[in-house]
Amino acid sequence: MAKTKKDSGAHAALSVREGEEAWTAEELAEVRAELEADETRLSAEVDEAEQDLVELMRSFGDGAGDDQADAGAATWEREHELSMTANAKALLLQTKHALERIDQGSYGDCESCGTPIGKMRLQAFPRATLCLTCKQKQERR
User: Domain tally for the chain?
Assistant: First the structure.
């Protein structure tokens, strides 16, 4: 496992795969900025979705005279909103976890086997916590 020091010295060395160049301060700042922007956007989405969900729950009880189709549509809308909220919360947690890993200096290490995830993979998907091998094993289960 190749380790290198960053220019800023603010974090421990981040892992890179063999043949990859070390993370530069600019590259890491770019990934961090993307994650922080996602965190802001996702936090707003979660807040809005939770407010929408409260409104849906309030109006759900008001449908005393609705027919089955109306009740079904309302149920579908509520379930859809619950699903969207859960997805946004999961992405927000993954984003916060990635930022924590950058701060701790463990960003780039596979959480399953400890080998480097790969700089190119992290630049494409900054929330990745598993190397490709471990991710493929996880998906086969």
Answer: 1
